[in-house]
Amino acid sequence: MLTDNQPNVRYQRQITLPNDVQEVPQLNVFVDEVCEQADFDMSTTLKLNLAIEEAVVNVMNYAYPAGEKGDVDIEAMINDECLVFVISDSGTPFDPTAKAEVDTTLSAEERGIGGLGIHLIRQIMDTINYERVEGKNVLTLRKKLTKNS
Amino acid sequence: MKTTFKEEDNYFVMYFEGRLDTAASAQVEEEMKPLYECNGHDIILDCANLEYISSSGLRLFLGLLKAAKPKGSHVYIRSINEDLRQVFAMTGFINLFEFK
């Protein structure tokens, strides 16, 4: 599924999880290992965990009809420039990037409870790209490597 | 993820320990219920040992704030670490809560 034609891929890993949020700790272990390979510090690793959790939980909660089992695939790749996560599922077509930006200046009374996940992904990742490919939702998230890594 | 509820000097205090991720949020939501009975008490969410929070956890904090405010109760976030403070900043939650 990784269609990145960037050269010098030096690391690649993949995990498949069922659409059950109780699997999130397993995702955290996966992201921690990938971030270690990318030499990210603990602070960046925490934020990447957050962005990937938000993207994957979104699939777990909404891609498949309630009660129906389905998988979410998470692929990670490190090249010379960045760490790339590709999150894909075979569920209902859904483009999370089309969701309206939340207004973070609103008061508690005015703040809605939704939209936080995609907002955090936008804040943390450098690029976000959604595609519908061969019946799959494919979300590609990139984070540039830090200079000393 | 572990929470502990205590009454301290007229404050309702909840201590959060570990990772408040989506997997933990349903259980924590249940454990936070006593805080909703806060009439006349201010609330402290002690985050000294909170290692991680995702949007599902932030929603629990916001839900509590929305319920406590009309009752005249303040909700304070205490001893949160710098990384998590940044998450609160990214979401604008830093402006919604009072920090100790």
Architecture overview:
The complex is a heterodimer of chains A (149) and B (100). Chain A is of the alpha+beta class. Chain A has one domain: Heat Shock Protein 90 (2-Layer Sandwich), CATH 3.30.565. Chain A has helices spanning 24-37, 42-62, 116-124; strands spanning 11-18, 71-78, 82-89, 127-133, 136-144. Chain A has a five-stranded antiparallel β-sheet, covered by helices on one side. Chain A starts with 10 loop residues before the first strand and ends in a 5-residue tail after the last strand. The model of chain A has no long low-confidence stretch (mean pLDDT 92). Chain B has 100 residues and is of the alpha/beta class. Chain B has helices at residues 22-31, 55-68, 82-90; strands spanning 2-8, 11-20, 42-53, 75-78, 98-99. A five-stranded mixed β-sheet of chain B has the order 1-2-3-4-5. In chain B, helix 3 (82-90) links the parallel strand 4 (75-78) and strand 5. The longest helix of chain B has 14 residues, at 55-68. Chain B is globular and about 30 Å long. Chain B starts with a strand and ends with a strand. The mean pLDDT of chain B is 97. Chains A and B meet through helix 1, helix 2 and helix 3 of A and helix 2 and helix 3 of B.
